[in-house]
Amino acid sequence: MPIVMNKVQDVLENYKSAIYEKDVEKFVSSFSSNIHIYDCWTDWECKGISQWRGIVKEWFNGLSEEGVLLKTDFADVVVEESSDLAFVHCAVTFAAHNQSGEKLRHISNRFTFGLKKEDESWVIAHFHSSLPISMETGKGIFNLR
């Protein structure tokens, strides 16, 4: 049975819990089947849920192999919404913990989500993650302000 996300905040909570649980299907349920993603990692973009599912599966498998739990936190969340479209921007931090709960590392970056209603449930139709770039090194800056 599909997960129904009645509020935009439900999508964010599903996103966080699915990552922590490493549940690929739960995670991709937050996204539209024709999702379009601009992300910071490797590829310029990702189009469609099949490609995204493969990327997520690889990501979660890597976390499992490493034996870490990934906690996700959103900060400075701003939501603008109408009856069938929403726009969210925020800072996100991913913190890797070992099985005993010790924090091993973390990264932060900026997210923008474009959401729409599909079958009365909010889903992410467009997702963009970004980082400020150091002018001296040309590398991304992963820490919050």
- Side by side, the strands of the main sheet go 2-1-6-5-4-3
Count of helices? 3
Mean pLDDT figure: 91
What is the β-strand count? 6
Overall SS class: alpha+beta
What is the name of the CATH class? Alpha Beta
CATH topology: Nuclear Transport Factor 2, Chain: A
- The radius of gyration computed from the alpha-carbon positions, rounded to a whole number of angstroms, is 15 Å
Order of helices and strands: HHEEHEEEE
Describe the fold and architecture.
The relative contact order is 0.20. It contains 3 helices and 6 strands, in the order ααββαββββ. A hairpin with a 3-residue loop joins strand 3 and strand 4 (85-97). It has one domain (8-130): Nuclear Transport Factor 2, Chain: A, CATH 3.10.450. It is globular, with a radius of gyration of 15 Å. Helix content is 26%, strand content 43%. By secondary structure, it is α+β, with helices and mostly antiparallel strands. Strands 2-1-6-5-4-3 form a 6-stranded mixed beta sheet, covered by helices on one side. InterPro entries: NTF2-like_dom_sf, SnoaL-like. Pfam families: SnoaL_3. It comes from Fictibacillus barbaricus.
Summarize the structure.
This protein is α+β, with helices and mostly antiparallel strands and 145 residues long. It is 26% helix and 43% strand.
Keyword list:
145 residues, alpha+beta, Nuclear Transport Factor 2, Chain: A, Ketosteroid isomerase-like protein, NTF2-like_dom_sf, SnoaL-like
Topology of helices and strands:
Layout lengths: L7 H14 L2 H5 L2 E8 L7 E2 L1 H18 L2 E13 L3 E13 L5 E16 L2 E10 L15
Parallel strand pairs: 1-6
Antiparallel strand pairs: 1-2, 3-4, 4-5, 5-6
